[in-house]
Amino acid sequence: MPPPPASDVTLRCQECGHENEPQRVYCHQCGTKLDRTRLPKDFKTEHDPRKLERRVRRIMDPRRGNFERGIKKLVLSIVIGAFLGLLLAALLPPDDVSDPQSLDEATGARFISDDINAAVDRGQSQSLTYPEKGMNGYLQIAYKKREIDYLPARFERVYAKPADGEVKVVAVLTVLWYVPVYAGGTYQVRVNGGKIESNCLRGHIGRLTIPGPVMSVIEGAFSPLWTMMDRDKKAVEKCRSITFRPGAVDLVTR
């Protein structure tokens, strides 16, 4: 029987399983020395001696396999490092955390929804201004832990950070029973025809910032929070306007 064509013969590496050309001495994939006794006894190749010498010299260089393995390890290290960096940024608290207030401070805050409803019932337009601390005291006392379920996380509280023309709303959650996570978004909000219109500028998980378009896609994850705050949303829809500025929010009732 004639020997098989050179193109049909390969040397399988016993270390990684890579199929190598029959002329190789070391594995092209991992650099392991190949068992050339596995070649057919009657296998022959015809080459230009000078080309064969150069080819064998390249094949026998084990550094080639080491270089390829090094590149793969470098890429894997970069991917793992980027993932761990994002995870760390998501778990770190943001720089502008609003600390929880004492029970006396929180219970002394004015109830925004009650103020709006009372002004509307009087039938007179009224301007209402709430400083950031008063607004967050109201949010802290108005929404208890039992009112929202973020399985497997537990809702602790919600706070807002008003700025020029926008407001940052953050839910404080705990995961693994004690690790706090700060998640929310920054929005432009206005009242138009008795309806609240909001535009998500960016999302936040810890110190990780999420682009607005991406946040709009995953915002369904915050639906328990928005459902919980529905009563205040309905109250604000009774206003003519809502304006956020650094440290305060201004409302004008209809």
Report on the structure:
The protein is an alpha+beta fold and 254 residues long. It has 2 domains: 6-86; 103-253, no CATH class. 34% of the residues lie in helices and 28% in strands. The chain has helices at 49-59, 63-91, 103-107, 112-122, 132-142, 212-218, 223-228, 230-236; strands at residues 11-12, 19-20, 127-131, 154-163, 166-175, 179-192, 195-205, 208-211, 239-245, 248-253. Strands 4-5-6-7-8 form a 5-stranded antiparallel sheet. It has a 3-stranded antiparallel sheet with strand order 3-10-9. A two-stranded antiparallel sheet has the order 1-2. Helix 4 (112-122) runs parallel beside helix 8. The mean pLDDT is 83.
Topology of this structure?
Elements: E1 11-12, E2 19-20, H1 49-59, H2 63-91, H3 103-107, H4 112-122, E3 127-131, H5 132-142, E4 154-163, E5 166-175, E6 179-192, E7 195-205, E8 208-211, H6 212-218, H7 223-228, H8 230-236, E9 239-245, E10 248-253
Antiparallel strand pairs: 1-2, 3-10, 4-5, 5-6, 6-7, 7-8, 9-10
Helix pairs in contact: 4-8
Summarize the structure.
With 254 residues, this protein is α+β, with helices and mostly antiparallel strands.
- Give the overall form: rod-shaped
Structural class: alpha+beta
Mean pLDDT: 83
Give the termini distance in whole angstroms. Answer: 99 Å
Strand content: 25-35%
Could you tell me the radius of gyration in angstroms?
Answer: 33 Å
**How many beta strands in the DSSP annotation?**
10
Helix content: 25-40%
Query: Ranges with pLDDT <50 over ≥5 residues?
Result: none
Helix/strand order, N-terminal first: EEHHHHEHEEEEEHHHEE
The oligomerization state is single chain
Query: How is the biggest beta sheet arranged?
Result: 5 strands, antiparallel
Q: List the domain count as a whole number.
A: 2
Q: Strand order of the main beta sheet, please?
A: 4-5-6-7-8
Helix count, per DSSP? 8
